[in-house]
Every structure is written in structure tokens, then in C-alpha cells.
Amino acid sequence: MDDSSALARLDRRVADCRACPRLVDWREEVARTKRAAFADWTYWGRPVPGFGPADARLVIIGLAPAAHGGNRTGRMFTGDRSGDVLYQAMYDVGLASQPTSVSADDGLELYGVRVTAPVHCAPPANKPTPGERDTCRPWLVQELTLLRPTLKAAVVLGAFGWQAALPAFREAGWTVPRPRPAFAHGTRVALDGLDLFGCFHVSQRNTFTGRLTAGMLREVLRTAADAAGLP
Q1: Most buried of 105, 122, 148, 164 (most Cβ within 10 A)?
Q2: DSSP characters over the chain
């Protein structure tokens, strides 16, 4: 089985997961009740797998899908304002074929980059518990293991994602320094054969207040893409 087939199989298994009762109840309740603006949508209402090619050289790791974003569209970090900021920046630096994504069948392609998360279900108040994070970690470990032959760089969005990603990289075979590197925007950590970058999360709290500007996000993505050898 080649890497693309193995990753597609993993994505299907992720989408069928029901390991965390609180998250299952929440994502399905949101999919039933919907938001008025999306009343005519059929929500995905399941765990959201990663998105991007199996031979990605760069991975972007966030927090979790949004209740009316990825939980609606079925594609990681799309359908909400945070995703709009991320995909616009990816388009600006040449990592995406279009600046917006509204549904899983809108033709968006990613170039050499895969987008994923340590928690695959939309959590209440956008806050998964540490236990839910740890329960979901094996999916990220398996994904990183499959990506490892080509992966050269990673961007982690936010402190929660950073805390979840470092153990996953270690379990997938990379050597993580001890003590674990602290999260900071713009930080760069060398794991054997991979450069790990920290970036403030693309949450509305950060983007609306200017803590994370479009220019700051583009700078991190461009630096990471260069480290990954992407054009």
C-alpha cells in the first residue's frame, strides 16, 4: 500500500471515531440544530480528518475544528473566520490554489502542505479537555508517521496545539529536546531532520486584536515553506 492509500485509509478511520462521548454528543447536536445562517446545509457532524497531500513537506497543526466551520464543511479549518485568515495567508505565500474555502468540494488544492489538528472533533467553547487531547493523539501520531518520509517542517498554531504536537512528534520518531521547548510566536526548534515553528493561533481573539496580523502569519508560513524546500 502506498503512502496516499495509507493516509486515505487513516482519514476514513478518523472520520468514524466515537472515542470521546462529550465530543460526539456536541458535534452531533450542533449538526442537528445548526446555525440559522447555515440552515440549508447538511453538516458533516463527524471527526474532521487532515487535509492535503500524502507527500507533504510541510504540516500545519492547529487546535480543533470549529462547530460551524470544519464540523459543517468536513474539511479541516474551513468555513469560519479563523480558517479564512489561514487559507488566505496560505494562498498569499503560494501554498494553496485559492484564497477561500467554503465546502469540501470547492476545488481547493494545497501545494506541498497538509493541515491537521491534535483534536479532530469540534469541542464545546472551542476547548477540548486534556483527556480528549490525549485520547485523540494516536491519530496525529499515525498521521505524522505516514508523512515522515517527506516532512521537513511544521507550523503549530497556539500553545494548546504546541503542547499536543510535541509528544506526537516524539512518538512518531523525532527526537524532541528536553526540557520541551516553550511555545512562542516565531520560535524555531530543530528536530532531527525537521524544523518546528510556533505561531499564534488564527483565532478571532488574536486576529481582531492585532496580536496576530496577516503579515505575521505570512512571515511564519513563508519561513516554514522555505525550510521545507517548497517554492
Answers
A1: 122
A2: --HHHHHHHHHHHHHT----HHHHHHHHHHHHH--GGGTT-----SPPPPBS-TT-SEEEE-S---TTTHHHHSSTT-SSHHHHHHHHHHHHTTSBSSS---STTS---BSSEEEE-S--SPPGGG---HHHHHHHHHHHHHHHHHHTTT--EEEEESHHHHHHHHHHHHHTT----SSPPPP-TT-EEEETTEEEEEE----HHHHHHTSS-HHHHHHHHHHHHHHHT--
